[in-house]
Design goal:
Layout (H helix, E strand, L loop, with lengths): L2 E8 L6 H13 E9 L10 H12 L5 E6 L3 H8 L3 E6 L2 H17 L4 E6 L9 H9 L10 H8 L1
Parallel strand pairs: 1-2, 1-4, 2-3, 4-5
Helix pairs in contact: 2-6
The structure holds coenzyme A.
The site of coenzyme A has 24 residues, from strand 1, helix 1, helix 3, helix 4 and helix 5.
Length: 157
């Protein structure tokens, strides 16, 4: 039986093939995936919220049961307001594990109804990070092996 709705939160600055891997696999496990783009820390963002949402929408277009939304403030507050309980996050390595562990516990303390589920990142994309992509873009390199086409289209203007 498929669980109903899962939230996949992140800054997605920018979205990478690692994120898309998690979204696609979640879409097979859940009835609906809500990709929740965080609007916090806008000043330090590489891309502004509006752009991150538009690029994510474009990247998810072909996946039927995915909806893209944005939020600011506490994720747990936003989820309560939307009536949602499940979070999915990807784990690439032991560094991610310790960060995600703390985040999952904190969200559960903030709201006992919230459960976080983890998917192990697919090996072929587990080396990718948004920081790496930003560095390559800033240095004028080719990021086509790391990001979905919508990021490339946005970069091409
Ligand atoms: N494959 C490849 N890369 C992945 C990945 C995967 N499966 N999962 C994460 N990443 C990478 C991203 O590329 C990014 O790389 P970077 O650190 O080099 O930029 C990094 O891991 C994490 O980015 P992302 O997944 O976009 O999300 P985030 O960790 O920045 O998002 C929030 C964190 C938004 C979910 C969290 O800060 C939050 O909930 N904020 C709201 C405020 C709040 O409620 N705080 C309390 C939470 S306890």
């Amino acid at each position: 039986m498929k669980l109903k709705v899962v939230v996949y939160p992140g800054r997605f600055d920018p979205v990478t093939l690692g994120h898309i891997d998690i979204i696609k696999r979640s879409s097979h496990l859940f009835g609906q995936v809500i990709v929740a783009v965080s609007g916090d820390s806008e000043k330090s963002s590489f891309w502004q919220l509006e752009q991150r949402v538009a690029v994510m929408e474009d990247a998810c277009q072909a996946i039927g049961n995915v909806k893209v939304e944005s939020f600011s403030g506490l994720l747990s507050d936003w989820m309560v307001a939307q009536g949602m309980n499940y979070i999915v996050r990807g784990i690439r390595d032991s560094v991610d594990m310790s960060v995600e562990w703390r985040m999952a516990h904190s969200n559960r303390v903030l709201n006992r109804e919230i459960e976080t589920l983890f998917l192990a990142s697919s090996p072929e994309v587990s080396h990718i990070s948004s920081t790496l992509v930003r560095q390559i873009i800033t240095s004028g390199g080719d990021v086509s092996a790391f990001v979905p086409g919508s990021v490339l289209a946005c970069l091409a203007g």
